[in-house]
Amino acid sequence: MTAVAETVLDAKTEPRPIDEAFLASVLSGLSKRQKTIESKYFYDARGSQLFDAITDLDEYYLTRAETALLKEQSAEIATLIGTGATLVEFGSGSSVKTRILLDALAALRLYVPIDISGEHLDAAAKQVAADFSLPVIPLHADYTSRFTLPHQVSRDRLVGFFPGSTIGNFEPDEAAAFLDRVRSLLGPAARLLVGADLQKDPARLEAAYDDAQGVTAAFNLNLLVRINRELGGDFSLEAFRHKALYNAEEGRVEMHLVSLADQSLSLGGRQIDFTAGETIHTENSYKYSLESFRELAQRGGWRSEAAWTDPEGLFSFHALIAE
Ligand code: AVJ
Q1: 13, 147, 291, 296: which has the highest count of C-beta atoms within 10 A?
Q2: Hey, what CATH topology would domain 61-199+288-322 get?
């Protein structure tokens, strides 16, 4: 959409009420010594589009590696799962990877996609229901906070699906707590299918988060665009630049927005000061080994049933069983 068309649309649209939770989160993050913005706020409509573009980049090997792994192993995964299971997906987006599983899974009882973005969710759910003649109950929720499953979902033979290495966005302690919560949500004898990116050459990792075309930079900076639009911020996009680095001590890729100058801006009636070179930490992507991921799963109450990696050892996919 062009800038002009956007202006016209904005003029016609009623101003939306401010998302108070978003504002509170941003204000609290920007008042810390190391400023932060929660990475879950990347995914407005534009951010989701940019993320989709990231998954097509040469440098971003994760999606290709996981998709190939899923295709390769879907028959074996289907054998583990058996028939009559209910698939619960955390952060289903457009359910692209799910379709690979659904192609292989025999006689699934139900699919429950969970996503924070309601519009996309309902459309994707309808499409999956039609294409696979499968009962689908979409759940519009933020899976990082507490929620319950719809009452129609019997807690029998539940299989969680959490692809994409999205688990890498959590601090390890949070990831263990999340896994523990998922286990109680899914009930006894549950399974969890989860993708986790692997440790590798830091140069390869940094390239995946700082691509030559600048798509990841646009994705990161879009946070500021979103804050300007939705929270009435006055960030200047020219005054910040994207930075990605591998933090070897923590075993994670970090994304930051670097302030290019001393500057002050206002948000929600508060003044926020930046010194030149100061950063806003916008994302962690933790990278695991097969072993360190199994240990993490163990902390969350899950035992490893099987794990697969691609021939290059780029990415891992785990089948876990609730203990
Ligand atoms: C969707 C969280 C898995 O961490 O690799 C992509 C998001 N950030 N490029 C990731 C992301 C920058 C992505 N996850």
Answers
A1: 296
A2: Rossmann fold (3.40.50)
Rg over CA atoms, the chain? 20
Going by CA atoms, what residue is nearest to atom 2 of ligand 1?
Answer: 166
Ligand 1 pocket member 166 (CB < 6 A) = yes
Ranges of residues in the chain whose predicted pLDDT is under 50: 1-6
pLDDT in tens, 202-220: 999 999 999 999 999 999 9
Q: In 10 A of CB 291, how many CB atoms?
A: 10
For ligand 1, say whether the CB of 168 is within 6 Å of any of its atoms.
Answer: yes
| Residue 283 in contact with ligand 1 by CB distance below 6 A | yes
Regarding the beta carbon of 222 and ligand 1, being less than 6 Å apart is answered no
Count other C-beta atoms under 10 Å from residue 289's C-beta.
14
Residue nearest to atom 4 of ligand 1 (CA): 285
Task: Using DSSP bridges, classify how beta strands 158-162 and 86-90 pair: parallel, antiparallel or unpaired.
Answer: parallel
Each residue of 99-156: pLDDT tens digit?
A: 999 999 989 999 999 998 777 899 999 999 999 999 999 999 999 888 899 999 998 9
Shortest-distance atom of ligand 1 to CA 283: 8
Strands 191-197 and 158-162: parallel
In the prediction, which pLDDT does 5 show? Answer: 47
63 ligand 1 Cβ < 6 A: no
> What is the predicted pLDDT for the residue at 1?
41
